Inverse folding.
């Protein structure tokens, strides 16, 4: 760690984790200010089973947080949480140690009470989010739902969406359906279970059209009766860049929960960046994006099968129009280039130079 640095970013994951990559690393790649990044164990998640396998690194990560606080940074950006073991003490200490501290969050952490394992229950994200919002000088929220909650506890809250870089995605050029059609989904092993919500609809579409489902994420089968028509691709920066453009229709089902109301619609933005038409649950930010893009917003199982079959049965020109419109809007309203001046201003970094 460079103890002489005046700018620090603290995030619970490494660049391989979507949240940290999107909300921290991609921004820092675009500014000239020299930030020292403390990414805890630099893993893709902080599951207790993974943490237990790295006891020495875990101790070092906790010591590193103390070193950052002792450095008394001019600027501190804290994303989500400082430590999976903290109950708010690290978040408070780090944020109050800095001359100017910003807390950034992109999920409904305020409603995450730690259902699951013992570690999550002992150090729930909800408590840490509340502490962080109260002690930051400014809060960056990923959408209006999160900002509404944060504004009840802090007077200085700005909304900056999770953004995409169009150049990171291969642009779809052909909208003629594959034979068989290729439905697609991208994400982590943790949330691919959302596809079970539309399992009957996917099975019906497969039965009627032969459509297959490409999953970009984990290669470990977990979806039971859907697996016979699933093709799995391991996530990597390269597979993310190329695989979406090779799909015909992107999918983003979500269960209707308070936590999901706080999601930032990132999968939809990824599909849009590739020019891929998509179908998604109209929940939270998704509802706004679907309306802007002119894409289907199904709610029931029958709605899902109708929406997917409708896009499959549409002329290629219709799918092309939808995909290109989504991509154009995303570049204008949800790209890093569009939001960089406001992000830099939120951290009070001065004029942006690249």
């Amino acid at each position: 760690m460079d103890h002489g640095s005046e700018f620090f970013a603290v995030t619970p994951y490494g660049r391989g984790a979507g949240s940290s990559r999107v909300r921290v690393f991609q921004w820092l790649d675009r500014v000239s200010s020299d930030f020292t990044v403390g990414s805890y164990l630099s893993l893709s998640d902080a599951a207790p089973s993974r943490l237990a396998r790295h006891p020495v690194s875990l101790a070092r990560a906790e010591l590193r947080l103390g070193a950052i606080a002792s450095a008394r940074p001019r600027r501190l950006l804290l994303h989500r949480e400082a430590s999976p073991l903290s109950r708010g003490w690290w978040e408070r200490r780090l944020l109050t140690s800095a001359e100017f501290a910003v807390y950034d969050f992109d999920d409904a952490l305020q409603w995450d009470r730690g259902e699951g394992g013992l570690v999550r229950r002992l150090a729930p994200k909800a408590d840490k989010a509340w502490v962080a919002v109260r002690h930051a000088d400014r809060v960056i929220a990923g959408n209006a739902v999160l900002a509404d909650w944060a504004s009840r506890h802090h007077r200085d809250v700005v909304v900056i969406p999770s953004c995409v870089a169009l150049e990171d995605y291969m642009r779809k050029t052909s909208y003629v359906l594959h034979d068989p059609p290729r439905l697609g989904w991208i994400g982590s092993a943790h949330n691919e279970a959302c596809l079970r919500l539309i399992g009957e609809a996917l099975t019906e579409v497969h039965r009627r059209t032969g459509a297959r489902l490409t999953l970009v994420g984990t290669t470990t089968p977990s979806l039971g009766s859907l697996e016979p028509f699933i093709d799995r691709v391991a996530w990597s920066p390269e597979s993310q860049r190329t695989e979406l453009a090779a799909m015909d229709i992107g999918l983003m089902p979500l269960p209707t929960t308070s936590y999901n109301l706080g999601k930032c619609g990132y999968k939809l933005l990824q599909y849009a960046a590739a020019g891929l038409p998509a179908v998604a649950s109209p929940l939270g930010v998704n509802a706004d994006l679907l309306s802007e893009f002119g894409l289907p917003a199904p709610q029931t199982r029958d709605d899902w099968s109708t929406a997917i079959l409708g896009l499959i049965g549409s002329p290629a020109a219709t799918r092309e129009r939808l995909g290109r419109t989504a991509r154009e809007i995303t570049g204008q309203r949800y790209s890093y280039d569009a939001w960089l001046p406001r992000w830099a201003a939120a951290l009070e970094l001065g004029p942006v130079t690249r």
User: Anything to note?
Assistant: The chain has a mean pLDDT of 93. The two ends are 24 Å apart (CA to CA). Residues 316-333 form the longest helix (18 residues).
